[in-house]
Amino acid sequence: MRRKTSLVLLALAVFFAALSPLLRWYAFPRLAKIPANQYQDMVLEAKDATLIDYNDGMKAKKVSKVTIVQTLKGNVEASEKIEKTARKDVVVWDGLSYVVGPDGKMVSRIPERYIFDAHTQDPVHATGESVDGDPVKRVGIEFKWPFLTEKRDYQYFDAQARTSAPIHYKGTQTFRGVDVYYFEQTIPWTKVPFPKTMPVQGITPASLARTGTTRWYTTVRKFWVEPLTGAPVYGEELHKEELRGGTLLGGRDKVTVFAGDVKMREDYIRHTVDLVKSNRTLVLLMTSYLPWGFLILGLLLLSLSLWLEARSRRPAATKVEEPEPVTA
Fold first, then answer.
1. Which of 30, 68, 78, 79 could form a disulfide with 44 if both were Cys (CB 3.0 to 4.6 A apart)?
2. Strand 163-175 vs strand 154-158: parallel, antiparallel, or unpaired?
């Protein structure tokens, strides 16, 4: 009986020991994915910002607040179509960055389509990849870091400049009770396209181009990223835009279009931190808790199996019978 039990325990030990690396290196890359139908939004604010007034002589004025609403909506139909040729799980995000002034009127509206690998977050190049209607070919990440983010620099795509540049790992910090990696990227002054949708009726990128006026942009982009999920728990940008040269400015060399310290709104910070904490637990289950737990369980079962096998092989003690006394 002991031998049968030891064989069963040995089989279970092998099963759990084999399951440990399979869960970490086979199941995790296939289960840890961004859902194709995911929808998320984010509200950011720049308080005490500078904003151009197109209706008052193109002057830059101080305003109480500029609000940026960013939405990312998963396009399931588009992702399924691309997956047929890409042969991998693909996510298509239709994004929109919508900027409004303190009066609630639109300042700019820039849509984009981001196509990427559901697990690695590497870009997938396919028809439709664009920013504000312009075809682009992304290099590196955007919006989200890969699962199990490393302490290194990454290439990060800048939608304004339509190019990628390094975003540098600056160290490990704690944000709202979560251990995070801090990343920072600086985009120097760069000439960028005008938005296709302008806040003033009748003004188009083509009409602006005829004046000789150009649009320039610089930013310092900061992200605090939870490394297991690769999700930013907080983001901030020191953002500046200018119009330069041409006849539109009435002889001025340049005028500020927008300048401000853009930060996530407090309610969205709380929501994001809670969501990331929940997802972090799921990633830990697949990468640490269960693999190590199964490995330790396998070793314990193996030890118990060997102990029972040794007990079953131990010779049984023989009873020595004493001779009966001989009677006369």
1. 68
2. antiparallel
